[in-house]
Amino acid sequence: MLSRLALQSFHSLQRWYSTRATIFGLSSGAGKCGVAVIRVSGDTSKDVMKCKTQIETLPKPRNAVLRRIFHAKKAEMIDKGLVLWFPGPHSFTGEDSVEFHVHGGVAVVSAMYDSLGSIEGVRLAEPGEFTKRAFYAGKMDLTEVEGLADLIEAETEAQRKQALLQANGELSKVYNQLRGRLLKCIASVEAYIDFAEDQDVDDGVLDSVKSDVSGIISDVKTHLNDHRRGERLRAGVRTVIIGAPNVGKSSFVNLLSNRKVSIVTNVAGTTRDIIESHHDIGGYPVILADTAGLRTDTSDIVEHEGITRARDYLQSADFIILIIDAENMQNYLTASRKTFDEYLHHHLATLGFSKSILNNSNSMLIVNKIDLLSTDTLTSLRHINNLSLLSCHTRDGLQPVLNQIANYLKHICGNPCKENPNLSQQRYRHHLKQCVEYLEKYEEYLRHGPNPDLAIATQYLRNAVRCIGKITGTIETEEILDFIFSSFCIGK
Q1: 3-class SS at 31?
Q2: Strand pairing partners for 241?
Q3: Side-chain half-sphere CA neighbours of 71 within 13 A
Q4: pLDDT band at 2, cuts 50/70/90?
Q5: Triad 149, 154, 159: Cα angle to 5°
Q6: Among 18, 125, 156, 432, which residue's beta carbon has the most beta carbons within 10 A?
Q7: pLDDT per residue over 78-109, tens digit each?
Q8: CA distance 286 to 280
């Protein structure tokens, strides 16, 4: 008898195969371009290719041939382009596939769509359907599918590297190895249940499983304890710029953007709301938030609301950049004859912070308007560690500041590699935490349960395996699959 889960999976596949038609879609970018790639996949791809090219002899697999391409119904030539034949299972989808490389004009692509759509049993692909067929054909698991989606969406070099590693199966290897270790534990316990009384299977088997489960818990917790590096790299590092009014926060954002993102005036309180802009700094994605200047003596209710929003945003930020005014700092130091550290402590207090806000590795201090400093003051500041000097007006110090920000971002996002691929999705984190919970319940049940039933204990291990299966798609639900594949474009 099939289990309920296996039966659901069987019916899911049955529904999919019953509606499977030959599909087509634009696999290159939309809009005018030099070459447009139109992919066809399905059982009748061979017939579609013959119909479109009016030839009987198939070209060699994976070899581009130049052919006249005709309309399927009107017997007129649409274009002259390259045709590539990919017989299954050695294709992206695992099915027979063909690609038409035609000129990328809107009219050409439209005519190709009209022609392919007029063939019986051939229809336009749904979003992500090519990749969905590749998944069902065993060409990739869900982590590779989501890595491919991230690769398509990648906007920075670091995002590309992380997505490529995942699309190539490096994260999949981690979870498949983990699943294999859990299956071995289940097999050992079940062997003990079935054969302990009749054959030479001693209690050492259970002790070995106990040790293995403990090791798996430790490894998963280490994997989870990554400070969300992969998720931050995938979504962008939320970076908040804070400081007193008129220190140059908006000027800094405009400087990085090479355009006027924020309004800049000499009137305190100009910025009233959170203004976000997206940047690529050192290959890392950054969501830069310009905020209202922080002060406690405002009577303007709109500015007060802006300050409240700035402080709220600060609580959820991944990275903090504090900007201080060089001229005001110099005036304070000259009048008080105090050290820079004493000034910084005083200045942070006026903003409502303690110095601890700068004591973590996810915060950075910039002194702006250094073009207004005396030579002696500027020289003394250059000897202070972890202090970045900048003039938004003259751009002096901009490149060192960008280099320093990139170093912080590298620490925050990590450096994805084959040996240690990043955990990139909140979905994975959720299932891994559930996996740990089941394994800890297994340990707890055996440790404190009176005469524990090993069959019940083994169920905890099976539930842990299912959690891993939900990550890779070994055990899938329609909701998860529909959500993942719907994020793809039509031609993928």
Answers
A1: coil
A2: 290, 321
A3: 15
A4: very low
A5: 110
A6: 125
A7: 999 999 999 999 999 999 999 999 999 999 99
A8: 6
